[in-house]
Design a protein that fits this description.
The structure holds two protein chains of two kinds. Chain A is about 40% helix and about 25% strand. By secondary structure, chain A is an alpha/beta fold. Chain A has one domain: Rossmann fold (3-Layer(aba) Sandwich). In chain A, the strands form two sheets. Chain A has a six-stranded mixed sheet with strand order 5-6-7-3-8-9, sandwiched between helices. In chain A, strand 8 and strand 9 (about 210-215) form a beta hairpin. Chain A is globular and about 50 Å long. By secondary structure, chain B is α/β, with parallel strands linked by helices. Chain B is about 65% helix and about 5% strand. Chain B has helices spanning about 5-15, 20-40, 45-55, 70-75, 85-95, 125-140, 145-150, 170-205, 210, 215-250, 270-295, 300-315, 320-325, 330-335, 345-350, 355-385, 395-400, and strands at about 60-65, 80, 100-105, 110-115, 155-165, 165. The chains are: A alpha/beta, B alpha/beta. The interface between A and B is medium-sized, with 28 and 23 residues.
């Protein structure tokens, strides 16, 4: 049995009078790929931000490697946030190298890793281009490169395929699979069910800040009569869609 | 503070690579010279104060080699006549009399020597004013056209003031500690906008979440503040190099006056106080502008606050004559010890020599404590205002956190 890398216990997060996360508990095991699923506004991003210390929980504990997350804790983290962007007026290689250094690499290691990634995603000729001169898809690739530089042991990807065309989506999936193969723990925040079925070991579906389903992909499907994750998602959130309409 | 040097290096290098940084360095001396000219010519308060000083009564002795000045006029103005030049100078040095005027025999070719007790940068001008008035009044009383022509003609005056028995040149004394006032003015004027925008950039570019999960907010903020200080000094050097080079190469062609650096008095205590006040003030205002930037969702919104900060900081310049001539007045004391208006009054008063050691110590404590509070506030605001992309953070949220 794999040990837990993340423990979330009895967590409630409120902003003013609105409760975003309501007494939520789950854990994520070392080396697994975990799907954090839910409709818009279900609290997926909020729980990630609280896990990473950006938000304070109203109640409960959120632990990575047994401790509340701190940047100097020694966890090699790669985080691709939902709200993403980089220093747009700077050169691609400068930004990538900077983040590599912030993650503990030397300048040379960071530069080499950046160039290797750029070659991998066929953007080596853009190394000295300013980020704002790149297309949206190219900027997304650079953002991904910044996330995975330094070979993180914990990879948190919030809506990683947002803004990607099918070709780049496939590239992203193969990069995630490479990190899975290296033993990294991957948290995948999304509502793209086919990617979840392909990549995730276990999932949690959030609804109104609570767990609507939690377990292995197979167990969740079994609980819902063997339906596909797509159908399960629709059945869980259909009342929200109707109320939205 | 792990990663502090990485942040500083990144911030400094990316800024010095920008053309605008160097354009600013070369344009700024021109802009500053223009602004000082405007302030100089519009500061009527200073010239009014000078006229008032001419009316002040003070004790003086005169040796009149022209033999054209009426002794009764001297007596009427509160002065005495003497024939002992050395004795009169000794009396000025010891404080027995306030001033001694020596009118030479040939006013058209020789200079008038004035010896006075130092009464402050602006008030020392009263000796010159009275010496001229005596000549003007004497000319008006004279019936002889030749005498009137001589007395009303071009005259040259040489002044020497004394403090505690020693020669004292208020203007030269001002140079070394005054450098910090000039530095502070230039740096804030040049870097105010950059300080303000240094944290907005992370927010506007949506890079803040990646940053906050990679390094401590405190490291980033302190790194940014240090990099701004480093950049400021690079820019100062960039401004000075062409000026010094131009002076050295063109001095003879343009017949510029020589500068004897050894004649500039160096008072280590005043220079030290100036340096500490400068550093504390610079850190305080850098922290303040970084805090405003961190609390604002966009550069446009933060821009409104920049005007307020600049008004508080440079507004006291309009009361410059008060800082020199009335340092103990209520308004000067308030502006000197209220942290957000204090830098200019304190640096100016230290330069002209009317900031007491006790006042300096109190001011340094106030500025340093304010700087520490403002920087810790900046870190907190950056941390908790990080994800507020569309609205400004309110004070309650800053204090309790999210």
């Amino acid at each position: 049995m794999k040990s837990d890398i993340i423990t979330i216990k009895d967590v409630t997060i409120s902003f003013g009078n609105s409760v975003i996360i309501d007494d939520l508990s789950f854990d994520i095991r070392r080396g697994e790929t975990f799907g954090l699923l839910g409709s818009n506004g279900s609290g997926k991003t909020t729980i990630i931000r609280a896990l990473l210390g950006i938000y304070r929980p109203t109640n409960g504990t959120l632990l990575i490697e047994g401790k509340p997350y701190h940047v100097n804790q020694g966890v090699k983290l790669g985080y691709l946030p939902e709200e993403r962007g980089l220093y747009k007026k700077e050169k691609v290689i400068d930004v990538m190298t900077y983040f590599g250094q912030l993650k503990g690499l030397s300048y040379r290691e960071s530069f080499d890793a950046s160039m290797k990634f750029l070659a991998r995603v066929q953007l080596e000729d853009k190394a000295t281009a300013r980020l704002d001169k790149l297309s949206g898809g190219q900027q997304q690739k650079i953002q991904l490169g910044v996330t995975i530089i330094g070979d993180p042991q914990l990879l948190i990807l919030d809506e990683p395929t947002k803004g990607f065309d099918p070709i780049n989506r496939r590239l992203l999936m193969s990069i995630i699979e490479e990190h899975q193969a290296k033993g990294a723990t991957v948290i995948f925040v999304t509502h793209q069910m086919e990617e979840v079925e392909r990549l995730c070991d276990r999932i949690i579906l959030l609804k109104g800040g609570k767990a609507a389903a939690y377990g292995t992909v197979a167990a969740v499907r079994k609980q819902h009569g063997g339906a596909s994750l797509d159908d399960i998602f629709v059945s869980i959130y259909s009342d929200e869609e109707e109320s939205d309409v | 503070m792990y990663n502090l040097s990485t942040v500083i290096r990144f911030e400094v290098i990316r800024t010095v690579k920008k053309k605008m940084f160097w354009i600013m360095a070369f344009l700024f001396p021109v802009v500053v010279a223009g602004m000082f000219t405007i302030v100089f010519f519009s500061n009527s308060a200073t010239s009014d104060a000078l006229k008032d000083t001419e009316k002040q009564k003070f004790s003086f002795a005169i040796k009149d080699d022209t033999a054209q000045i009426d002794p009764s006029l001297i007596n009427a103005m509160g002065g005495t006549t003497t024939s002992d030049v050395d004795g009169a100078i000794r009396d000025v040095k010891s404080g027995k009399i306030d001033a001694f005027f020596h009118y030479p025999k040939e006013l058209s070719t020789q200079q008038i020597d004035i010896y006075g007790r130092d009464v402050g940068l602006f008030d020392n001008g009263r000796y010159d004013g009275v010496a001229r008035s005596i000549l003007t009044l004497s000319a008006s009383q004279s019936v002889d056209i030749n005498t009137r022509t001589i007395l009303q003609g071009e005259i040259r005056i040489h002044s020497q003031t004394y403090k505690d028995g020693q020669p004292y040149d208020g203007m030269k004394q001002l140079i070394a500690p005054g450098v910090f006032l000039l530095l502070f003015y230039i740096l804030i004027a040049m870097f105010g906008n950059q300080m303000l925008n240094s944290t907005i950039e992370e927010k506007e570019n949506r890079v803040i979440e990646m940053i906050l999960t990679t390094i401590e907010a405190r490291t980033l903020i302190i790194g940014k503040i240090i990099s701004l200080i480093v950049l400021a000094f690079i820019q100062i050097i960039a401004i000075l190099i062409p000026i010094v080079a131009l002076y050295l190469t063109m001095r003879e062609k343009l017949e510029l006056p020589g500068i004897d650096l050894t004649s500039i008095p160096l008072d280590p205590i005043r220079i030290g106080i100036g340096f500490v006040l400068f550093i504390a003030s610079f850190i305080l205002f850098t922290g303040l502008l970084v805090t405003v930037g961190a609390a604002s969702p966009t550069a446009k919104e933060a821009g409104g606050f920049l005007g307020v900060v600049m008004m508080m900081l440079f507004g006291p310049l309009y009361a410059v004559s008060l800082f020199v001539s009335a340092p103990q007045s209520g308004i000067v004391q308030f502006l000197s010890f209220f942290p957000f208006t204090a830098p200019i009054p304190l640096l100016l008063r230290n330069a002209v020599g009317n900031l007491s050691y006790t006042e300096a110590i109190i001011a340094i404590v106030i500025l340093s404590a304010s700087a520490a509070i403002v920087i810790s506030l900046a870190v907190r605001v950056f941390q908790y205002g990080a994800l507020e992309y569309s609205r400004r953070l309110n004070l309650r949220e800053i204090i309790i956190g999210r």
